[in-house]
Amino acid sequence: VESSIPEHMREAWKKFSPKGFTTKDEFESEAVKHIETTLARSLFNCDELAAYSGTALAFRDRLIIDWNKTQQRQSFADQKRLYYLSLEFLMGRALDNAMLNVGLKNVAKDGLADLGFRIEDIIAQEHDAALGNGGLGRLAACFLDSMATLNYAAWGYGLRYRYGIFKQEIQDGYQVEIPDYWLDFNPWEFPRHDVSVDVQFYGWVNKYTNDEGKQIVSWQDGEIVTATAYDVPVPGYGTPTVNNLRLWSSKASSGEFDFAKFNSGEYESAVADEQRAETISAVLYPNDNLERGKELRLKQQYFWCAASLHDIVRRFKKSKRKWSEFSDQVAIQLNDTHPTLAIVELQRILVDMEGLGWDEAWTIVTSTFGYTNHTVLPEALEKWSVPLIQNLLPRHLQIIYEINLQFLQSVEKRFPKDRDLLGRVSIIEESQPKMVRMAYLAIIGSHKVNGVAELHSDLIKTTIFKDFVKVYGPDKFTNVTNGITPRRWLHQANPRLSELIASKIGSYEFLKDLTLLNKLEPFVDDKEFKKEWAEIKYANKVRLAQHIQTTKGYSVNPKALFDIQVKRIHEYKRQQLNIFGVIHRYMAIKSMSPEERKKLVPRVSVFGGKAAPGYWMAKTIIHLINKVGEVVNKDPDVGDLLKVVFLEDYNVSKAEIIVPASDISEHISTAGTEASGTSNMKFVLNGGMIIGTLDGANIEITREIGEQNIFLFGNLSEDVEDLRHHHFYGDYKVNPELVKVFDCIKKGTFGDEGAFGALISGIVEHGDYYLVSDDFNSYCQTQDLIDEAYKDQDAWVTKSITSVARMGFFTSDRCINEYADTIWNIEPLDVAEEKEVRART
Ligand code: CR6
């Protein structure tokens, strides 16, 4: 690593390089300096937003010092690095996290108090960085936190969307989408105008033999769009490591091409080009588990893959190593198939630009990439039409065909008798138009493929990728069960619980080694401890009740059982099952005598989540939940016994309030459909019980915490296919209790019954694909068991503590170590020395 500053002048640099604040006075001085100079505000016009900005800038400076050192350390160490390619990073807020990770939250709290502010109000000023849809994007954010905390040299690569996931409002019970322009003031990013990549689209391919008789392939003309890097620091917890998340922003290339247009008087069309270029990184596609095949989305994918790959290759070339060492220095993980074009792009760079032979290049490519699959739902598996790729990326299509040809030839050689196999494993689907199956390309171009929970990883081997297990053998396929970062999802979201745990087990070490939670088990009978445990849950429920009061304008009783389902709205996640259950309960209450009602456990049913703007059925479910709430919440027969709340605009920062407040949360997908789920882990880690199906990570949660500590119900994944078949061909009848619920809706109890017709007919007439009727009985019975169990608060708290004590497995630190050992082959960096230096200064 070279420096541009001559040796004898470096002393001045060292003398003046900032150290970062550590004391309260230093913090205040930094914050006030930023408020008065960076923001040009004063004591007389410093509102909470300005105080937030000053605080954020002070912490940002601190992070940057460590960030610079980390990058230097990683360059010097010259070890293999991991690059995590994800179209989504659902980061949420950064300030609170930064404060906790550098261990200076209390300093900031006292400093802000001196300056006249409450730290909670300041934290609440920050806009969520909502560059993701749901679980997949949040998983990427948890992974970044773990990679930094564990001192891995790892970078995230993504897109800097101008608009993140839309904001949700509910108007007259319907979801309305509002654009999320989040970049107004974002102190957490550093534009790197000196780091850019020109990305090419369209054009044509010129193949010729040069004077030396070498085949040359060149991709010519078309359109150039420039990718500019924006870097976001990612601090680890209790370590000097600050990793980098690099997000690309698109703008028109400033090349001669455009100047030519300006000069020839085509001002308007030049400006239009510019806008078209900026459109590429303008907006996050708001679909979760659904692919739509839009050209702009393909452009986003290639733009981001090309920029990231050229950046990575540039860094590798600086090391002056041989190409054969590429995969000793670089591991790239594909978060779902969205970055699959990176495989093709690396092959293109190596063959067309660097002049390597095809086979040599392909060996490098396949030993570099790993691919994570996150779904078996057919509607979510990406396919791009051949004509679309042909037009946008003509050279890439040729490379895809070549990869496919070579692959199919090798399959043909090994399985000469199995003619159908070739068609089944071909990257190209012979449809009209032909389609490129991205998951197949990802498998063929990677050395490992993993699912995200045991059941899911088994399912991909027996269903969607069955033929590839035949071709490659089972070892290429593996499992890494998802996890969550305990820093954000316990320490930050539930500070009192974190403190209580630390006081019992002696330190906060569990935040770095979550298995230490098992030291809680000996205290399950400790009366005082259980009391405090219950008090904290209650306080968290009070906090959520206050949130409901301020956002919805009505009160709920914090003593009631809080039953929460927050996640994207999707038929497979079955919020409809939940709301039908609520209606069933409502009808039961209505038919009871006052004496019977007295015996009931009061319940607050909380829902939250966004529907994809074009997903009409999901929007209908939201509408029904809101209409049921309107009726139930003001029914005097019901009173406190049942409240139905739809919380608007569910996002990461709201989850931090909602998750710690649950008594029960719902993870009730049709068995075999939810690849993992991660909110299930968050709720249990915060002392909530769960009601769930035997699906995704629920199965492993059960194994860890014990069957007596979870409320399971419903059909098993191995029975789903037969049940579906039976719906169409057997003597199928809808569950009679569910029919009563439908009758209640059809009577107009919740307003215009026509509005909900499709929800009902989907079950009654169209085969009930998600098995709502099949699972309805067992769901309702299990809810009754929950009521009974809740009456015995002492036993409930025992379950709660026992479950938390056994949740160690679900930390994302464990996932990252598994990926590092079994897929990436990378080692953490030693930071002991750096820690010592920090402690001394
Ligand atoms: N929608 C799965 O559905 C899983 C996450 C993260 C999902 C969910 O069960 O926990 O990924 N899949 O692995 C996709 O996004 C394709 C998700 O979030």
Structure commentary:
The protein has a domain at 486-806: 3-Layer(aba) Sandwich (Rossmann fold), CATH 3.40.50.2000. Helices cover 49% and strands 15% of the residues. The protein has 35 helices and 24 strands. Helix 28 links the parallel strand 23 and strand 24. The protein starts with 9 loop residues before the first helix and ends with a helix. The structure holds 1-deoxy-1-acetylamino-beta-D-gluco-2-heptulopyranosonamide. 1-deoxy-1-acetylamino-beta-D-gluco-2-heptulopyranosonamide binds at residues 134-136, 139, 288-289, 336, 374-375, 380, 452, 482, 674-678, 696.
Please describe the topology of this protein:
Layout: H1 10-16, H2 24-38, H3 48-77, E1 81-85, E2 89-92, H4 95-102, H5 105-114, H6 119-123, E3 129-131, H7 135-149, E4 154-159, E5 167-171, E6 174-178, E7 190-201, E8 204-209, E9 215-220, E10 223-235, E11 242-252, H8 256-263, H9 267-279, H10 295-318, H11 326-329, E12 330-335, H12 341-353, H13 358-368, E13 369-372, E14 383-385, H14 386-392, H15 394-414, H16 419-425, E15 428-429, E16 435-437, H17 438-444, E17 448-451, H18 454-462, H19 466-472, E18 477-479, H20 486-492, H21 495-505, H22 527-552, E19 561-566, H23 575-590, H24 594-598, E20 603-608, H25 616-632, E21 642-647, H26 652-658, E22 664-667, H27 679-685, E23 689-692, H28 698-705, E24 711-712, H29 717-729, H30 736-746, H31 757-764, H32 772-791, H33 793-805, H34 812-824, H35 832-840
Parallel strand pairs: 1-4, 1-12, 4-11, 12-13, 13-17, 17-18, 19-20, 19-22, 20-21, 22-23, 23-24
Antiparallel strand pairs: 2-3, 5-6, 7-10, 8-9, 10-11, 14-16, 15-16
Helix pairs in contact: 2-3, 2-5, 3-4, 4-20, 7-34, 10-12, 12-13, 12-15, 14-15, 21-22, 23-25, 23-30, 23-32
1-deoxy-1-acetylamino-beta-D-gluco-2-heptulopyranosonamide (CR6) binds at residues 134-136, 139, 288-289, 336, 374-375, 380, 452, 482, 674-678, 696.
